[in-house]
Write a structure and sequence with these properties.
Layout (H helix, E strand, L loop, with lengths): L9 E6 L4 E4 L2 E3 L6 H12 L3 E6 L11 E4 L3 H12 L4 E4 L6 E3 L18 E3 L3 H7 L5 E7 L4 H12 L3 E5 L12 E2 L2 E3 L5 E3 L3 E2 H21 L1
Parallel strand pairs: 1-4, 1-6, 4-5, 6-9, 9-10
Antiparallel strand pairs: 2-3, 7-8, 10-12, 11-14, 12-13
Helix pairs in contact: 1-5
The structure holds cytidine-5'-monophosphate.
The site of cytidine-5'-monophosphate has 13 residues, from helix 3 and strand 9.
Length: about 220
């Protein structure tokens, strides 16, 4: 049976890709399906949490019993997550945030020209890192996708962003990560300690993620 260990706890989950528009009809994005974030939101809801799911464009229906905020760009994602995170105790960033947006977004559709074009991109804010600066008692969880030196890079990322732990996955494993129903992740803590989990359903990954978040929360409340 599902434990009710998050009764009344406010949880914020971000999910899906962001879209960074170049003009009204063209954007930079990625293939994130939003399934991992949805699984975390549903699992937290079933454990009694008050859940806000901030999601980029995904083709999944809104889950019931969850407050859903739909956004498109990383800047909109930041506003929604920071707004909801104020009184949240757990924030899980599964969203695949675009690292860059167009430096200037055109209000008119850009006409095709002969030859190459150059697009000037500017970095998006790192939302997880921003939350890490004003962390308070919140438990902050991130995801990371790496092709090499995963554990070291993820631990470094957790320290840099002041996250409590990061779930590391690899884009190359068949049937996991982008779009799939399963995920194969390694839990990485800021001190570099880590646990490789077997291939699991995204719901089971969500369950273990929230178990770990509850352990971090308990430890923090004891000190
Ligand atoms: O640095 P990297 O993109 O690999 O970090 C991934 C983690 O940071 C994810 O949890 C993602 O949601 C979060 N992130 C963020 N804002 C960004 C980029 C990533 O919150 N601009």
């Amino acid at each position: 049976p599902t434990p009710r260990d998050l009764e009344g706890v406010k949880v914020v989950v971000s999910a899906g890709p962001t879209r960074e528009y170049l003009d009204p009809v063209r954007f930079i994005s990625n293939p994130s399906s939003g399934k991992m974030g949805l699984a975390v939101a549903e699992e937290a809801r079933d454990r009694g949490a008050e859940v806000t799911l901030v999601t980029g464009p995904v083709s999944l229906p809104d889950p019931s019993g969850v407050r859903v905020v739909r956004i498109e760009s990383a800047l909109e994602l930041r506003d929604a997550v920071v707004g909801a995170a104020g009184d949240a105790e757990i924030v899980v960033m599964t969203a695949a945030v675009a690292d860059y947006r167009a430096a200037e977004r055109s209000d008119e559709k850009q006409a095709k020209v002969a030859g190459d074009v150059t697009v000037h991109l500017t970095p998006n804010p790192d939302i997880l890192a921003e939350l890490g600066v004003q962390k308070g008692n919140r438990v902050l969880v991130g995801f990371a996708m790496e092709t090499h030196a995963g554990v070291e890079r993820a631990a470094l990322k957790a320290r840099r962003k002041n996250a409590d732990f990061i779930l590391l996955n690899y884009p190359t494993r068949e049937g996991t990560a982008f779009g799939g129903d399963d995920n194969e992740v390694t839990l990485v803590r800021p001190d570099g300690s880590h646990e490789a989990w077997p291939r699991l359903s995204k719901r089971e990954v969500a369950r273990r993620l929230l178990d770990e978040a509850c352990r971090v929360r308990e430890r923090r409340r004891e000190t």
